[in-house]
Amino acid sequence: MIRAYVGLGANLGDARAAVRAGLAALGALPQTRLAAASSLYTSAPVDADGPDFVNAAAALDTALDARALLAALLAIEARHGRARPYRNAPRTLDLDLLLFGDTVSDDPLLTLPHPRMAGRAFVLVPLAEIAPGLALPGGARVATLAAALAGQTVIRLPEESAP
Amino acid sequence: MSVLPEKFHHIVVEGPIGAGKTSLARRLAAAAGAALMLEAPEENPFLARFYRDMSRYALPTQLFFLFQRIHQLADLKQPDLFKGITVGDFLFEKDPLFARLTLGDDELALYEQMYRHLKPQAPVPDLVIYLQAEPATLIERVRRRGHAHEQPISEAYLLRLAERYTRFFHHYDAAPLLIVNADHFNFVDSDEDFGLLLRQVRAMRGRREYLNRAG
Question: Does B33 fall in a domain?
Fold first, then answer.
């Protein structure tokens, strides 16, 4: 089994429900166990129009290979909303494969670690909640990277807040 | 003279399910001392679920095949002087033929987006051998060989697939194409038939040629 980390985001419709549904779908993948799920967080979108994002992170233990997991993530996205009409368009549910074990890959289809995770608090803050000691393949610790982005506002949503 | 001309580094045998492409690819590779590059459906972790619940598992199944094919084909781009000829049983461009049969509109849009993204990475073969066969032939072969993963395939699906292949190769012009009427040949068991095919491949000069035998 490989430990993989997935970032979840939504900013259309009922974004919290979409992220929760995404977490449930991750737990239902073949040959895969949902090992941990972060709280839900909210943030303003970095470079997309539309309302605030809701984000979370999940840890998976999986026997799927990276390509199979990517195929599954894209399929979950598609089941939760329409295909993106243009780059960075608002979307119902967005899943990013952040890390797949300690795999480093520059495959254009599947770049690992995820190329845009290091500078984004809405990815790193939820990830640091479930894996504070986790180090990226380059050696940087997730908690350290998240702390360095304190200027980007990411707010943890209270557990009891009903959607 | 070698069994296959050296100008054909990458030969692809194509055709719908049951046309006999994998058997022919194996025999060609064995005869020419070539490397084999075969589809590997048994590696697809979604395929078993797909046959139980097609609408739910079609997209991950299709995307896995798409990623798997481009990954396999990427090996052909590694320059290797000693590698010689590679015979395969799939064309990257065949993948959407299946996707269009199994995916819903929204899913297909996402699939097509990934396909367009990957397409430029797919090498163009030096020769494509297209095995064309009557649907009745395909159905009989699929039933007879009894691959477990193929048994749930309906006749209607095979019919539509064969029709999509016909249409696809009607327009295909990326590589030299040899169209073979596979109904009247047995390349696996008949040395004479296999010899005819080899001769036709060696003599291939144009962009599109036909191998047929009056039924």
Answer: no
Q: How many CB atoms lie within 10 A of CB B76?
A: 18
Q: Give Dmax (Cα) for chain A.
A: 41
Say if A105 is an interface residue toward chain B (CB within 8 Å).
no
Type of residue numbered B28 = L
pLDDT reading at B147 higher than 80: no
**A16-71 pLDDT per residue, tens:** 889 999 999 999 999 999 999 999 999 866 665 656 789 999 999 999 999 999 99
Complex ipTM tops 0.90: no
| Partner-chain contact A70 B106, CB within 8 Å | no
Which domain does B58 fall in, by range? 18-27+40-126
Q: Which CATH superfamily is domain A2-156 in?
A: 7,8-Dihydro-6-hydroxymethylpterin-pyrophosphokinase HPPK (3.30.70.560)
Q: Which residues of B sit within 8 Å Cβ distance of A?
A: 44-46, 49, 57, 59-61, 63-64, 66-68, 70-71, 106-107, 109-110, 113-114, 117-118, 121
In a domain, B147, yes or no: no
Mind listing the pLDDT tens digit for each residue in B41-76? 999 999 888 888 888 899 999 999 999 999 999 888
How far is residue A146's CA from residue A112's CA, in Å, rounded to a whole number? 18
What residues does A100 pair with on adjacent strands? Answer: A4
For chain B, what is the domain count? Answer: 1
Is there a contact between A77 and B70 if contact means CB atoms under 8 Å apart? no
How many Cβ atoms from other residues are within 10 Å of residue B146's Cβ? 8
Residue A81 binned pLDDT confidence (cut-offs 50, 70, 90): low
